[in-house]
Amino acid sequence: MDKYDVIVVGSGITGGWAAKEFCEKGFKTLVIERGRHITHRGPEYTDMQAPWQIDNRNLVPERIAEEGRYGNIINKGFFKPATQQFFADESEHPISYPEDKPFRWVRSYQLGGRSVTWGRQVLRWGPKDFEANAKDGHGVPWPIGYDDLAPWYDRVESFIGVSANKDGLDVLPDGVFQKPWEMSCAERFISDNLKKKYTDRHLIIGRAANITEPTPEQQSLGRTQCQARSYCKRGCSFGGYFSSLSATLPAAERTGNLTVVTDAIVETVDYDETTGRASGVTVIDAHSKEKRQYKARVVFCVPWHWAQYKSYLTPSLQLFPMVWRIAVVLWVTTSWTTLRALLRMPKSPDLKILTLSVDVLLLLIFPITAMSKKTMPILFVVLATKLLRSIDRTRAQQQIK
């Protein structure tokens, strides 16, 4: 039975960041990924293949629909033979949902998770986002403000590389940016005319995690500038866009403190009744179906899949007091869907249904963990990453209106 300082469950954007931060702080860290092992610039990357080298000239074959495969994403523009290997087939990994409420769940089961195929737009929350709950009376006021998080935004942006223009908008704060991409003639025409007629409407260039002026740190990881080929979802051999495979996991690996285990599905977070703390995880080998255990002082759970959260929560209600009293195990959700799923889990005296977002819960929970003094910065980096990659839909709709 192997023992580590930290176990990180999930290797996507948040998992990669957690691994990097823990490893750089000197903690022996194990990253557990349920999907297969792939490597940066490995054979699964297809960004160097010409159209005639790809099956069916990169058009989705009709037989895939006829066989009932990839039904959730087969009509999405990003799903092609050149990217098919990065997405889970729901015919092999089925989920259930009401017929009148289909849930289009896009999953990626490989090392790096969905960081290999994400959209790469990274927008900061502004002061108004943190103040909105208190002003409109909905939800719970944030315990922090933009000024508290701004230095951590800077740190994340400096590492991942963000190409953007400094637009000076209160609703969308500027950050640590590299040279922006140019607008097309049509975009520039619309932007100029909006400026002439409106003071509160703006058309700006996207803020993308695609590097245009690689820093020495990014170059040391083998990354170089984006080639503007629009092949991002095939995997980028240049490391032009940020992913766990191109950036955070290599940064963690070079410390000598990282161990990666793939094809291992976490069944439960193990609970030590004598200490009242998480002691590790039990995993199921995806191929042999055999179980094995890994032990650690801290278990950091960051998979996207809400089904895995259920497996963590349902084995024993003894887990609930551990989570809320000492918070050694952190559930980091990446969508409100996951949060709602969590709130439908069986209740216990120690599991309170809170209206806080889970990101705020992390801020409240993390300082009282067993390793709080050393790991507090890690929370802010992970939180900043999560906020960078997700902007509240309501806010977006309000801006459109």
Instruction: Please compute the radius of gyration using only Cα atoms.
Output: 22 Å
Order of H and E elements: EHEHHHHHHEEEEHHEHHHH
Structural class: alpha/beta
* Topology-level CATH name of the domain at 2-36 and 254-386: FAD/NAD(P)-binding domain
User: What share of the residues lie within helices?
Assistant: 25-40%
Assigned CATH architecture of the domain at 2-36 and 254-386: 3-Layer(bba) Sandwich
Low-confidence stretches: 321-376, 389-398
Which CATH top level class of the domain at 2-36 and 254-386 fits? Answer: Alpha Beta
Count of alpha/pi helices = 13
**Care to count the β-strands?**
7
**Separation of termini?**
57 Å
Query: Which percent band covers the strand fraction?
Result: 5-15%
Characterize the main sheet.
7 strands, mixed
How is the topology of this model organized?
Blueprint: E1 2-9, H1 13-24, E2 29-32, H2 62-66, H3 127-136, H4 146-160, H5 185-197, H6 216-220, H7 244-253, E3 258-261, E4 264-272, E5 277-285, E6 291-301, H8 306-313, H9 319-325, E7 329-331, H10 336-343, H11 358-365, H12 372-388, H13 393-400
Helix pairs in contact: 1-7, 1-12, 4-12
Q: In words, what does this structure look like?
A:
This protein has 13 helices and 7 strands. Strands 1, 2, 3, 4, 5, 6 and 7 form a 7-stranded mixed β-sheet that branches. The longest helix is centred in the last third of the chain and has 17 residues, at 372-388. It is of the alpha/beta class and 401 residues long. The N and C termini lie far apart (57 Å). It is globular and about 65 Å long. Helix 1 (13-24) runs parallel beside helix 7 (244-253), helix 1 runs antiparallel to helix 12 and helix 4 crosses helix 12. It has a domain at 2-36 and 254-386: FAD/NAD(P)-binding domain (3-Layer(bba) Sandwich).
